[in-house]
Fold this protein.
Amino acid sequence: MRLEAPCLRIATGTILHETNTFCVHPTTLDNFKYDTLAPRSVRTGYLNAKDFFEEYAGTKSIAGGFIDASKNLGFELIPTIWADATPGGTVSSEAFDYLLSALLTELRKIGRVDGVLLGLHGGGYSETHNDLEGKVLKEVRAMVGEDTPIVSTLDLHANVSQLMIDTADALIGYDTYPHVDMYERGLEAANILFSTIKSRVEPAMVMEKPPLIISLQGQFTGKHPMSKLMEKAHEVEREDGVLNVTVSASFPLTDCVDTGIALIVTTNNNPKLAEEKAKQLSDLAWSLRKDFLVKPTPIKQAVQEAMGTQGPVILADIGDNPGAGGPTDGTALLRALVEAEAKNTVIAVMRDPEAVSKAIQAGVGSQVTLKVGGKTDKFHGDPLEIIGYVRLISDGVFRNRGPMATGAEMRMGRTVVFDSRGIEVILTELRMQPMDLQLYRSVGIEPSEKQIIAVKSSVHYRAAHTPIAKKIIEVDTPGITGPDLKRYPFKKVRRPIFPLDDI
Ligand SMILES: [Zn+2]
């Protein structure tokens, strides 16, 4: 039986990456194919419709939000490709060209669409297209024409370009870091697109960019000053005629002309109001600039504090966050914990495929000496020799139960729990940021019973770990994801810019 009116046809897709240009290893097509966070079927190149729905339906993700919106609003959601790689170095031309061509080919195959709903990140940077998302939007626009609305979600870490603003009808960024509102923003973006197609609204989007870069740790939305900025953004969003306010805190580790905080206001056909509100928010962000600076604790002091306080104490290894391009094999914190003879401690995680293989070869219960970590680059400490025994071997697959990307399946590759005199090192084949307590429980570790939990993460760990933590310490570990932006050899960012320049 046919519905009275034909169902709206909305195409969806993404090429999703957060690029740390200080990372020495490029992000290749293999990373999009085999990476932990990438959907299963991307392993065959890209996702077909069936795999897209199988992977994301029922999950609290962007795509999960799109899927539920299509049911709530009654439109047909038609996937192109959904390609996602763990944050890392500059995306190779080969990878980006392949994925863009795949996305456009699928979009062409779909034929007539009423709108396009993208799930872009905003922090992507490829060898040939430094403004990766600007390029994607431009090509999609060229294909669907001026009259077909395009709306995309953006990560809170988007480096938004004017081209993106000019090309999309609306861009809807996350409001939270840790990102616990991906699903809601997915619903919101779909709603705005739907209303635009139905001519109920006409989005007018304006962006303001004060000369300000904020470290990842300074962007935590759970405390001042980011909480204050977000509060104000929500206040503006509730005003008449305002459709959306996005505070894009930016990904500070992309050395790119678009790097820096962006305040984006979308009104219903009122560019003047959008301009005024974006300016207000921009002034507020600028006035708070010094409050965004963070000062982490030196490693030895952090370890002493963690050993002398009631646990669990979270030690955040913020210099080596895989979620921001870190290699996940930094040894500085582990070395300090070994030297201090810390007990009842867990390291989440150490990516070292070589050590994993050796431990698996030795087998469960065997005692072995392993050289772990420090194998990717020169910025995260040397390999560390530790003696211990192989406690558990796992396939490294678990499903999130916490507040972030709830329901999504995570894959760490083959995983070993290696117990070295009371320090349990979770050795993995793939990079994985500890965002969910199932990571521990899936390998037989109860995190709430640990004295010390060392996490390679900037901020995302907070969502799941804060409820069990007696104390959280941000540790000043070496690496390519830490908060002291003056340590990085920036060449392409706009100057002057705070805090690189004292303005
Ligand atoms: Zn992010």
Observations:
- The pocket of zinc ion is lined by residues 155-157, 179 (CB under 6 Å).
- The radius of gyration is 22 Å.
